[in-house]
Design goal:
mainly alpha
């Protein structure tokens, strides 16, 4: 079953308050944001040379590296977005909320199979998800349009297009990343009852 078809079913039964369904959402959107941002930019930039470039070993390896490293960061960004959207509904239980959301992001990453040489980077990213949420909880609340995105610097650093060939394009590249985070926010609002979901996440028994 595809991501869209899975969540499309929710339209027919009302918004969900299921932590289990949120865990799927976290995993799918963490991957989607990274893949869509990286692949769309490279495809547009290379144009007719895109398919040929993907078959060249050096470029393919660099592209794979970029996709994985951006994914490690974007998975945390999606978790941060969700925590920020749910936090107003569970005042006094922010720590519990952050624990649950960070755990979902960690679980999502653990279900993937990164290249051996990137496993350490993935583990380091996962270990930082909870710390990032704690830091964001100490600052003013962010929306999808203002949330600091850890994937941004990683994206600019690892894109397999030489910096000289994308001079002046950083704003557009980061804008595309932001657009996909905003899309995730819109889908979160569309498919979930945020107040009920937040309460379910911080329930003492933790049942899903």
């Amino acid at each position: 079953m595809t991501f869209l078809s899975r969540f499309g079913r929710l339209m027919w039964r009302g918004r969900s308050a299921s932590p289990a369904e949120l865990a799927v959402f976290v995993a799918r959107w963490g991957a989607f944001v990274a893949q869509k941002t990286v692949l769309d930019y490279c495809a547009v930039k290379l144009g007719l040379n895109w398919e040929q470039a993907r078959r060249e070993p050096v470029f393919a390896a660099a592209l794979r590296e970029c996709r994985w490293r951006v994914y490690f960061a974007s998975q945390g960004d999606v978790a941060a977005l969700i925590e920020a959207r749910l936090r107003p509904h569970v005042r006094g239980s922010e720590d519990r909320l952050a624990d649950r959301v960070a755990a979902m992001a960690v679980m999502a990453l653990a279900s993937t199979d990164p290249p051996d040489h990137l496993r350490g980077a993935g583990e380091a990213a996962a270990a930082g998800y909870r710390r990032t949420l704690a830091r964001l909880q100490l600052a003013h609340e962010h929306s999808a349009t203002t949330l600091p995105l850890q994937a941004g610097p990683v994206l600019l650093e690892t894109l397999p297009i030489h910096p000289e060939l994308r001079r002046g394009e950083s704003v557009a590249i980061l804008g595309a990343l932001r657009m996909h985070i905003v899309s995730a926010d819109q889908e979160l609002e569309r498919y979930f009852d945020l107040a009920a979901l937040a309460l379910a996440l911080v329930a003492a028994d933790g049942e899903e």
